Amino acid sequence: MRRLILFCLILAGCMAAQAKTLVVYYSYTNNVNRIVTELTKQIEADVIRVEPAEKGLDYAADNYAIGSAQISAIRNNPDDASSYPAIDPVDVNLDEYDCVIIGAPLWWSNMAAPLQTFLFHNGKEMADKKIGLIVSSASSGISGVEADAKRLIPDGDFMSPSLWIRSSQTSNAATLVSDWLKTIGYDDFARIEDIMTDDANHLDIYTLTGQPAASDISSITKGIYIVRYVSNGKVTSKKVVI
Has this prediction a pTM greater than 0.90? Predict the structure, then answer.
């Protein structure tokens, strides 16, 4: 029991500091904004809406010519910062989050250019974080947006599948988001209060591959673990984020 209490105290500190979700999105037609609104009704998360630095642009004019030109510039030279359109400054400390959910419109089979700008500058700081991707489009498939996300967040731990919500499905976003969260196992991660119970005992900690974690709890590194314990005579296993 003493080992359980020590573990819970350590875990409580880790969860308070790192078990947080950030939602980052861009929305021109407001479809993604509606989806994110439904998402944040179902999970606790901080939210950043990416905005272009140049205001008043009519992206829909001339068959979305501005967006097409921005996407072409990125495709032609994806490693050059000048290829990406300027966005409003974003003040975020990504070290505070262990999960980032990205809400992305599809432009010409790719991720919307302003959101690519944000990820170009911040994607490397998302290494080893859980990454969820929600894509809104009128009809096209989302493989190009997924490829952009993985290029810009090369070391992210992407949750699968991504959620594709067509424009015609936006009114049903609440149900689609709920089903997706269950599919990716978002709610499988235990809160600390799920484990800190008076009757919980005989606790063991394992890696996701089933290997016992370090016997010295204070030496356990950041990551996702399986905690197995006995509560009310029943063996229970839960995922926890440290």
Answer: no
Going by C-beta distance under 8 Å and a sequence separation of 6 or more, which residues neighbour residue 70? 85, 107, 113
Q: How many domains does the chain fold into? A: 2
DSSP designation for 111: E
pLDDT in tens, 104-154: 999 999 999 999 999 999 999 999 999 999 999 998 899 999 999 999 999
CA torsion, points 101, 103, 108, 114, in degrees to nearest 10? -90
Measured between alpha carbons, how far is 2 from 239 in angstroms, rounded to an integer?
A: 21
- pLDDT of 200 reads 56
Residues 6, 30 within the same domain: no
Does 69 lie in the same domain as 131?
yes
CA distance 37 to 171: 12
